[in-house]
């Protein structure tokens, strides 16, 4: 997160007593000296914010651009530690109220302005889908009070709750973490000052080095271990990131680390920049992060800061001091704040497309808004005399009042739209109970519906499709959890046929449909689900604890299925699952072999297996398009949303005892695929079916299972 702090270099403060006498009211000693600007650090800010922004605009082109946030953490650690150390050296203490008041004046005005904008957007059903409103309001409030990182950490295991589009304020996790750093860091340094008096003979700098060094080392170990064991919350937890601030702090505290030697400075600076470029292009979503991998961008940023020699024009310190880099560095904080909400909102704006030209125009708009915010919000409020000429508590109470105003606006957004939300829930329940004739898949698969024509009505409404999801989340195992959780539905009769539903979230999306089928047919339904973990014997290529949890879960499911009296198994899986290719010519062949091996554990016993070819996977939630355009305008080419070779189809072809269900022609006609079929809204997010549409597949799913159960062993 780009902070808005100035960039002074450490200097000799002179006599502390004389300095204190010269301080104007409300000013702390860290600002009593003339600040020597460090242009190359401002240029490093430009690199960091561009990495993040370009990654969010074109994630496929810059898959590791998220490391820009790590660069900001190092910069903040360097700057804030330098500020605090100078005050400790001059006065022996830190005036906490003054310190926090300055942070509030510098960071809150722009931050709360963007949050207020997002809260107003949340009021509009045209820009925010009604189904997304609860999450949007909760996260705006969490971001307003700077606990968004903890909100995401506590809900990051909710794979089901984050299957759709993120909120407009999700990027505030890093701001929240940094604000928590501003609270904890001066307290740690005050603790170090007390330790200096007790055990270090008054050597404050040495005590600070020891305390911050110990905290940073412990944080790094925690980060590595937690990333391996529970990577989703590890990304957001505060203590797992403190070591990155600590690396910047070491450069501020140890003068020898600010390198003046021409050759060493040149190598450090360019080496750091090249490291950041390398990780931006080579890291991606599969990189175990932060963990040990975060050390590369962290040390790269530290190397750039440490490179202090400016003698030659080709030195990185001089290149980063060029005016374009300085301009981007100046507006980096506001640019970070504005870019993400605009990216999330843009697809919901009428007449706004997703072409390269629209993206570039949106990027330009982000820069314009960032400059305007810097010029008319950030800069004026930092020196607003109504606050700077009064005690620090005036700033702090004013900040709290502004935060309550933003939080109240978010609450008002919920109050305004709550009736529509409740009506949507009721309408969805009625639709499931009494769907129209020739609705959904029947419009394609039923001969009786061949002449049926649908009007422009889409059910469920695009603004509410996101909540049309399975309700039995206790049956769904997520992330690093390897527990084998089994749920039972349907008939309790001793002689009832038992059908097992096994797989990842694309099998789980069929659960409500099969609950009804089992009830109607008198079957006993047993389920085994784990997110992003299909029923397959080939390990995932995903490293760390997640991949291992999937392997362990599969082994547990295999044991339970082997010990159970199952009459048929139905399975489904997302076609884009990454499999390890070890021992095979390709990951595709490995996936095909893995499916056949897993299925054979049942078919060799005479238990039939029914499997389903995967549905299309869209680049973004098609409901965004459906809310502002006709359904025909939201179609996509088959080549963009369908995997060319689904390993499920290849594995099922020619396999004894396996029935393949292929509904591709339901989703797609000719060369295009549609998000609306027979008036039914097919998707609740970019790749999961609505329960409403899955229910329209029930007659054909039922027929396949009936035939499998009737087949002689």
UniProtKB/TrEMBL annotation:
<dbReference type="GO" id="GO:0016020">
    <property type="term" value="C:membrane"/>
</dbReference>
<dbReference type="InterPro" id="IPR043968">
    <property type="entry name" value="SGNH"/>
</dbReference>
<feature type="transmembrane region" description="Helical">
    <location>
        <begin position="106"/>
        <end position="127"/>
    </location>
</feature>
<keyword id="KW-0812">Transmembrane</keyword>
<feature type="transmembrane region" description="Helical">
    <location>
        <begin position="356"/>
        <end position="373"/>
    </location>
</feature>
<feature type="transmembrane region" description="Helical">
    <location>
        <begin position="394"/>
        <end position="416"/>
    </location>
</feature>
<dbReference type="GO" id="GO:0009103">
    <property type="term" value="P:lipopolysaccharide biosynthetic process"/>
</dbReference>
<keyword id="KW-0012">Acyltransferase</keyword>
<feature type="transmembrane region" description="Helical">
    <location>
        <begin position="331"/>
        <end position="350"/>
    </location>
</feature>
<dbReference type="InterPro" id="IPR002656">
    <property type="entry name" value="Acyl_transf_3_dom"/>
</dbReference>
<keyword id="KW-0808">Transferase</keyword>
<feature type="transmembrane region" description="Helical">
    <location>
        <begin position="207"/>
        <end position="228"/>
    </location>
</feature>
<feature type="domain" description="SGNH">
    <location>
        <begin position="485"/>
        <end position="699"/>
    </location>
</feature>
<dbReference type="InterPro" id="IPR050879">
    <property type="entry name" value="Acyltransferase_3"/>
</dbReference>
<dbReference type="Pfam" id="PF01757">
    <property type="entry name" value="Acyl_transf_3"/>
</dbReference>
<feature type="domain" description="Acyltransferase 3">
    <location>
        <begin position="42"/>
        <end position="373"/>
    </location>
</feature>
<feature type="region of interest" description="Disordered">
    <location>
        <begin position="1"/>
        <end position="34"/>
    </location>
</feature>
<keyword id="KW-1133">Transmembrane helix</keyword>
<feature type="transmembrane region" description="Helical">
    <location>
        <begin position="64"/>
        <end position="85"/>
    </location>
</feature>
<dbReference type="Pfam" id="PF19040">
    <property type="entry name" value="SGNH"/>
</dbReference>
<feature type="transmembrane region" description="Helical">
    <location>
        <begin position="263"/>
        <end position="283"/>
    </location>
</feature>
<feature type="transmembrane region" description="Helical">
    <location>
        <begin position="289"/>
        <end position="310"/>
    </location>
</feature>
<dbReference type="GO" id="GO:0016747">
    <property type="term" value="F:acyltransferase activity, transferring groups other than amino-acyl groups"/>
</dbReference>
<feature type="transmembrane region" description="Helical">
    <location>
        <begin position="182"/>
        <end position="200"/>
    </location>
</feature>
<protein>
    <submittedName>
        <fullName>Acyltransferase</fullName>
    </submittedName>
</protein>
<feature type="transmembrane region" description="Helical">
    <location>
        <begin position="234"/>
        <end position="256"/>
    </location>
</feature>
<keyword id="KW-0472">Membrane</keyword>
